[in-house]
Structure formats: structure tokens, C-alpha cells
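[Q] Does anyone have a clean C-alpha cell version of this?
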Amino acid sequence: MSLNRNQLQAAVTPPHRVASLWYSRFRGRAQFGMAGFVLIYALLALKLVDATIIAPIKPSAAVLAAQRPDFRTMLPAPDRAPILDRNGRLLAVSLPGAALFADPKEITTPRRDAARLESALPMLDQAEIAHRLSLNHYGFVYLDRDLTAAQELAVNRLGIPGLYFQHVWVRHYPQGDLAAHILGGVTPDQRGIAGIEDYFDHRLIAKPNQPLHLSIDLRVEDIVHREVARAMTDYKARGACGIVESMTGRIVAMVSLPDYNANDLHDAPTHALFDRCISGDYEPGSVMKLMTMPAALQSRLVNYWDRFDTTHPLFVDGFSVTDYEPVHYWLAMPAVLAFSSNIGASRIATIMGPKIQRAWLRKMGFFKPSPIQMPGVQPPIWHPKDTWKLLTTMTVSFGNGIAMAPIILVNAVVADVNGGILYKPTLLARPAGAPRRTGIRVMRHHVSVIMRKLMRGVVLSGTGVYARVPGYLVGGKTGTSQVVGADGTYRNHLNNSSFMAMFPADHPRYVVYVLVIHPKPTKKMQHFSYGFTTGGYVAAPAVGRIIARIGPMLGITPLQGAALKSMNASFGIPLKPAIPPGRRSLGPGHPFPPGANRYAYDLADQTPPAHLDTAAAAAALRRVQLAIPDQRTNDRGPIVASAPSRQADN
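[A] Here you go.
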């Protein structure tokens, strides 16, 4: 057997020399290992210094805020001011709440934690929460922004590391669907997104401790909501709206149906979000005669005792103008309005002509969006000047061929009956100690009084009899307009029904308007409406019920007995008024006044005189243009008027 060199050396080396050799090798290796450990610890120390001193990784501000103890005993100011109605009732308020968020970097088991969270918060989507918890490249993700106190406690009991609560303010609407379109709503980060919340967003944030007072009366809003919903349900209508406006332009109630719960704005269907009071353009139908009559009276081309030929339909350019219930004799202005004669309105409008008609409508706000403090207001729809010919002049006189949002129509009628002063509509209450609102005089006070009496006749003996209310002098006007289809033509057997009212007629305080969109004959209402869906059957009863309920609530005492009988006898104009002594009336043999437009002769198939009275026509136009704010050449200039002292600015 042979031995290698090492074995041979070990065999001949003494034992103590072998031990020394192995010790020397072990010592070298130990020193090398210690050096390695020192190096590793040095690197760790450097990394620690870098992570904590040189370039520290700071937790998010939200995490720090959640972990910092709060020793305050007073809650901070809310992020938005509350919104109140005119009587101080709460419409919107911000309340303290909690938002749940996570730091995904601290979450080790996203799926398991998401399942546990779903057990405490069933409304959460487990898959979505698991996805958010796994986003470990983020340090902050929201899981829920609106926890109740009970939900916050349930999550806290889970004891999941990496979950935190953030103190937030949450907007609440205690009235639910009441005034939902007016109030609008806010985004998850509490910024206004619709309605008053959007329009006054900066003010609500800048002055969180100062409530915003609206002109809305919550009691009236509730009554209008109920009665409009009833009419809509009774006739299976597509939609509806109701407005109550004071004589100084303050909106007391405004309802658009269908609506939604303001607390659930983000889940509301699209058709419920549409505000039919300010954004829907509808042909007003015969309610528009409330613009034709005062324009004619203001121009002084026509008097209320004049008679107009309504004995036969009118045919122009292949179109016919007829009356729903033709009478076949000459009607005076009170009867034209009471019987809602389209033929009579056309005769009156053509006497004025398109220039006067357009000037009046422009002055009354029909050619621009309403200035109401709401986002989403829509401009009206009308014919351009170059196509505003004979047929347009006729159809616009009774509410066809022009469309506008109901708020525009209501605000113009307020000026009809309040003495002739046009105010900008507003949703804001009158501040304590503030001066009365000012408006623009658009017609003579005498014309306004005549309009009240004419409207009273509609309810006493015309198409608005179903708006009568015991004890109250209600005046009004029905409106029924056909609906234009997608092909641009009117659809048979489909209409919008409306009624415009003011009360009390002798001293108006409020205008009430109800519009029912696409009502249908129903078996439930067959005994009452006989299958008709006109404004007199559909909308007038709803307005009557509203007035009967809100009148006493608003401090308007109904008349009784002899007082009511006397007022009914004295306040009104007969359907066949007598001609004042010394005055001449338009009628058979004398159908045209000096200054009548050429269209009036065309409509009567008569040749106009060779020289029309242009001076009389120009004077009539100046009278109609009275008080246009930007008019510089009218005969008297703008007239700014305040509400009469006896008239409450509310």
C-alpha cells in the first residue's frame, strides 16, 4: 500500500503539530466570517440611515391623521353651509361621517381581508375590494366614503391591519325627493354637481356657517308635489311639472316629475334627473293667449270690447286654424279668452303684426334662457325673423310654433297680473331688512287689471271652470298643445295639458301653473273627463286643489257670503262687454283699426289700403317696446319699479 504526501507527512508529524495546523486554519476562516458579518451589518446600518434619515419613506397624511389622537371637544365647521326653506326648515345639511381607506402596502392577504370586509359591509363588491387591496404600489385607496356609525364600528371590530378611517362631512337631504331638482346634489368629495348645490357651490363652501335661505316653502312644495303626481298618475302621463311664483318673482314651489331622492342622486335614472320646469321646451298651447291679449291692449290697437270674426276656420298656406268648440259668431276679447278661440287670437295677432308680436315676446323674456339661479336652463325655441310670416304670427298667438321652459311662461304671466312689472325669477328668500325687489315696468297698470278680469272670466264661464275654489277668486287660462313628433309634424291624439292660474284675482298674490305631459284617457277618469285630455280636464282640477290647500296656509282668507257674492259681481268683464260712450268698436263693417298690419287684411281676404297708417303702427310699436332694458329709442325709456308697499315681497 502506498501513501500520498499529506498522509505521509501526517504519519511522520507529531500530534501537537497536527493540532496547531488545524487551529491555524480554523482561525483564518473565523476571521473571514466575522469580517463578512461586519460588512453585512454595516450595509444594513447604511440602509437604515438612508431610509430613516437621508431619504425616509413617510406615511401618507391620511394615515398620520387617522393615527393621531384628537383631543378636541368641538367638531370643526362643516364643509358646506346648510340650505333652508323660507321658514327655516332644513333642506340640506352636512353631517360628520367616516370614510374607509386602506394602505395596500400593509395588506398581506387581500382576498381574505376583502371577504371579511364584505361580511361587515355587504354593499361592497368583494372582487373590487380585493383588487384595490392588492394595489401595493399605492399607499392610499378609498374603500367606502360614506360609513354610518354602526358600519364604522363593525369594520373596527374586524381588526384588519392597514385599514383606517377618515373623518369626513357627508351631505344629507332630510326631505328625500321634495325639492330634489332644486337642490341637486354633490359629488363624493362634496362639490356641487346639480341644482342649487352647483349654482351656489362657491358660496356654500366659502360661508359654511351661514345657511342659504331659499324662497321655497316646504309645505307648499309638498302639496304641489302630491297634486301634480296625482294628475300624472290619474292620466298615466309621461311627466309633469308644477310651479308657484309670488308677485315679485320669488319661487315658492317648483316640482318636476318624475323625480328622485336627493340622497341617491348618483343612482337616479336619467329620465328622473331631467328638470322639466327649467330644461324642457314645450309649446304652451292656449296659455300663450295671455301674452297675445296684453300685447294688443298695450299697443292700443285693440280694446277689450272689440269684436273679432270667429265665424269660420282660417286657411293659410295649406294649414287650417280652427276652434275646439266653434261658436260661429263675432267674439269680444273676454269671450276669445274664455272660449279659448284660436281664430280670435289669430285675428288679434295679425292686427298687431309680427314686429309688435316679436317685440313683446322679446321684452317678456321669451327669446332667452330664464335667469333663474339653476344650471341647465335651456333657451326657448322660436322662428327666426326672416321666416316669421303670416302663419307664424297666427300660430304663435295661440301657443304653437314657439316653445319654452315653463319657468319662462310663468314669470311672464306674473307680470301680466301684478300691475305690469317684470321681475327676474329667483329661488332666494328675501334677506331680513333687505329692500323690496325691483323690476321693469312692461305694461300699463290698467292693462294688468284688465288681464286679471279676463282671466277671472275663464274660470267663471269658460274652459277653466274646474279650477274654481270655494271662497277664492281664481283667474286662469287653459292650455292644450299637440306634441311634435320626430318627423317634425304634430302627432294626433297626443298632447300636453296645462293650466295657468292666479289668485286672488282682485289682488293677486301667487301664480300657479301645472303642466301634464302626454296624458292619456284612463278608465279611472272616464266618468270625469269623458276621454278628453285637455287642459281644462287634466290640469285645471289639479291647480284648483293646490289653491284650496295652500291658500289658508299662505294667509289668504277665503271670502264668504255677501262679501264673496259682491266681489264676484263687481270684479270681472262680461263676455259681451258694452262699448263705452263715445268709443268705437271693431266689428262687422269695421274690422281694422288705424295702424293694423297688412296681415290682418290678408287673413280677411281683403285688399289693404294703398297707404297703411304707418304713424299709428309706429306709435303702437313704441308703446309695446315700453321699458325694454336695452332699448334706447322708446318713447319713455326704461321704468324700474319696486313692489307696491301693499304687496308682500315674498
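[Q] Thanks! Anything notable?
[A] The first strand starts at residue 83 and ends at 84.
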